[in-house]
Amino acid sequence: MLSQLRPLVGIGVVVVFPNRYPDCVLVSERLSSHGKGSYQLPGGHLEYGESFEECAQRELKEETNLHSSSFKLIHVTNTIFSEEDGGSKHYVTIFMKTIIEDDSTLKCMEPEKNSDWIWTKWNHLKNMKLFAPLRQTVDDSNFNPFHDIIN
Ligand code: 8DG
Ligand code: MG
């Protein structure tokens, strides 16, 4: 029943490598599940008992093979997915930023779930088909992951 449904918590990892790819973040195209055909950040569900940082570190490793142990919360969205997005779902997404200095281990670890990871200019994202939480974030003109006050 609808009244028993509750929002889920997702983590999106904003990975930046300013020394090599200025103003870029890592994205890939979703190949399955809801949001198929849209570009997403590395991320996934917050598991029971996990901190935001632990979840970001785990999802980053599982999906990109990158390791980082330093993350900062930079943004939050409340996203009610439409049927167009692949079904009615409701997620609170926590966006965690990490700065890396080396991407030599970068690999698409779940090729059945998403395409290769690509460094993409933040300003180019607005012209791409985006996974709903990322679309909301990119469309928020007050937010820029490179100019945020928390970092
Ligand atoms: P899981 O192992 O954590 O269950 O999920 P997954 O295999 O990584 O699936 P996913 O579809 O990549 O992520 C699960 C959910 O996480 C997704 O349906 C919605 C939520 N999520 C957000 N924001 C973001 C985001 O920016 N990127 C990704 N990949 N997932 C996000 O709410
Ligand atoms: Mg995922």
Task: Quickly describe the structure.
This protein has helices at 52-64, 122-125, 132-139, and strands at 8-16, 24-29, 39-40, 43-45, 72-81, 89-99, 118-121.
Describe the structure.
The longest helix is centred in the middle third of the chain and has 13 residues, at 52-64. The chain contains three helices and seven strands, in the order ββββαβββαα. It starts with 7 loop residues before the first strand and ends in a 12-residue tail after the last helix. It is an alpha+beta fold and 151 residues long. It binds 8-OXO-2'-deoxyguanosine-5'-triphosphate (8DG) and magnesium ion. Magnesium ion binds next to β4.
Question: Which key features would you list for this structure?
Answer:
single chain; 151 residues; alpha+beta; 4-stranded mixed beta sheet; 3-stranded antiparallel beta sheet; 7 strands; 17% helix; globular; binds 8-OXO-2'-deoxyguanosine-5'-triphosphate; binds magnesium ion
What's the average pLDDT? Answer: 94
Oligomer: single chain
CA(first)-CA(last) distance: 42 Å
Sheet with the most strands, sense and barrel status: 4 strands, mixed
Shape type? globular
Order of SSEs, N→C? Answer: EEEEHEEEHH
Which range best describes the helical content: under 10%, 10-25%, 25-40%, 40-55%, 55-70% or over 70%?
10-25%
The distinct ligands, each listed once, are: 8-OXO-2'-deoxyguanosine-5'-triphosphate, magnesium ion
Low-pLDDT segments: none
Structural class: alpha+beta
List the strand order in the largest sheet: 4-1-6-5
Tally of separate helices: 3
What is the number of beta strands? 7
